Amino acid sequence: MSHGKQFTLFSHTGGPNGWKVAFILEELGLTYESIYFDFKKNEHKAPEFTKYNPNGRIPAVIDHRNNDFVVWESNAIIQYVVDKYDKEHKLSIAPGTDEYYTQLQWLYFQASGQGPYFGQVGWFNLYHPEKVPSAVERYRNETKRVLGVLESVLLKQEWLVGGRLTVADISFIPWNIFATTLLLEGFDLEKEFPATAKWHNKLLARPAVKNLWEERERLLAQQ
Fold first, then answer.
1. How far apart are CA 62 and CA 72, in angstroms?
2. Predicted pLDDT at 1
3. What range(s) does the GST C-terminal domain occupy (predicted)?
């Protein structure tokens, strides 16, 4: 790849997981070139991509500064990026500390709790060919439960770990946007989970986040 930037980021204009990786790269001032796959054409399943990610899902990155090293799975990418390139710990906790494992705890929770449940709400609300009210109700309830977990912590502290912004916080942004604007009809985050809403709005106001999400909207409008 000849774009001259440090990373190639394989992503998707609509999906959330590529954007949270982009947030981290932007926050750290790392250069990257995004390649957006057309899922309708199954570009993410093509051999040209599965040679990098055998799971055929986005995101994945190639780190051209590190001998074209490839990492896939969004939170594994985030952990790789901060461990290797956030030496001043602008967005991360120093490895080996107790809080480092708290940071990992939240990254795992985002990947295993927030992402799958919120994604299933989206699937059964928007894409499943049949209406399955029981599935919609289950995953709506699970989405609110996950938000309740965040609320229980954010009522007592400003950020998830270390008393400051970290990748743990940033990893939740895209799916929370989807939940509050698309997935949960008639839902008022500020009313139901006020501490989480305050935290979420602070994250959205960050220039890197705001600018990238606006770029996403521009890309979607062009399709």
1. 9
2. 65
3. 96-223
Looking at the chain, list the stretches that DSSP marks H as alpha helix, in order from N- to C-terminal side: 17-27, 47-50, 74-85, 98-109, 115-122, 133-154, 167-170, 173-178, 189-192, 194-204, 207-222
| Helix axes 17-27 and 207-222, enclosed angle (nearest 10) | 140
pLDDT tens-digit series, residues 35-80 = 999 998 989 999 999 999 999 999 999 999 999 999 999 999 999 9
With 0-12 / 13-18 / 19 or more C-beta atoms within 10 angstroms meaning exposed / middle / buried, residue 127 is: exposed
CATH number at residue 42: 3.40.30.10
Number of C-beta neighbours around residue 16 at 10 A: 22
| Among 55, 10, 16, 15, residue whose Cα is nearest residue 36 | 10
Residue 66 makes CB contacts below 8 A (sequence gap 6+) with 84
CB 12 within 8 A of CB 61: no
Burial grade of 28 (CB within 10 A; 0-12, 13-18, 19 or more): middle
Per the structure, the complete domain to which residue 22 belongs is given by 7-91
What does the alpha-carbon distance between residue 132 and residue 201 come to, in Å, rounded to a whole number?
Answer: 32
Question: Distance between CA atoms of 21 and 35, rounded to whole angstroms?
Answer: 13
Residues 66 and 114 in one domain: no
pTM recorded for the entire structure? 0.94
Q: Please give the tally of structural domains in the chain.
A: 2
Rounded to 5°, the CA angle 80-99-200 comes to 75
Same domain, 39 and 129: no
Q: Could you give the CA distance from residue 139 to residue 137 in angstroms, rounded to a whole number?
A: 6
